[in-house]
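Working notes for the structural subgroup meeting. M.R. asked for a predicted model of this chain before we commit to crystallization trials. I am recording the input and output together here so anyone reviewing the notebook later can reproduce the run.

Input as submitted:
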Amino acid sequence: MQLIIMDSRLARSRAIHLTGGRLLAVFLAASLVLMCMAALLYHLVFLKGAREGWPVIGAVLRLVVQDEFAQRDRFVRQNIDAMARKLGEMQARMVELESLGERVSGLAGIELPRKSAAPGMGGALIASHSLSMEELDATLQQLDQLSGQRVDLLTVLESRLFDQHIHKHLVPTESPAPGRSVGSGFGWRIDPIVGKTALHAGLDFPAETGADIVAAAAGVVVTQEYHAEFGNMVEIDHGNQIVSRYAHSSKVLVKRGDLVRRGQKIAEVGTTGRSTGPHLHFEVLVQGVPQDPQKFLTAGSQAARKLAAAPARPAGRQVAGR
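Returned structure, recorded in token form:
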């Protein structure tokens, strides 16, 4: 394409040659300028109409704002409803936690104060509404306070159960000769060596030489020596002025100052010292006074039977409504 521009005053002319590419570029540039001008004009007119309250533009603005607020309200409402459902699940868990705390408190020997029963409520559901942010916040604060009380209670229960666990493991209630029966009990008997009446201050467990001797409870080895009457002897201090004694062993596996756990092998059966044959002589002393070890062993076996016979309590799930 060729354009000829004529100037009448100067009697001159000028020819401009336009190719296809140039025409396309000119067309695109003109379109872009027109679009920018139209957008600017629309913005100015719309802004002026919004400020001055023109009827048509004001109605359009109200529709746009109402739709935006409605979408925002639906989004907030969906989030609140989801939080309310989650809150209901948390309340159900708190009910389970409270029931668990009551059962554990019974095991720990702590009697919780009885709570007054909630007053009965009911009736037909006339109308309902979703939770507001204020109601949700108040419920969350109550739940937070209740969870704090439950945590404090369970902390106390944990401490009490830990003390009981330690106390149980520090009392010599486990048989020091597993699988062996008592041959000679605690009390007065005819001494097998001199044939006279004498006090037997422990229990004798007959066994073959080399059989296991285990600690009846956890503690610290305070004595490991050869005694003229007890032979190779081990004494374990369990605290609270309770000491257990293991005598006549053929081999000792611990030394003074060792920490031993409940049921740990500490020696092997023998016939050292004043003995007529291989056996374990077992004593329990409280404040230095010999006690009947059978009482401790019987208490341990009874506790084990009760624990084995106790039925498992399934935790029932409860649902809290809102």
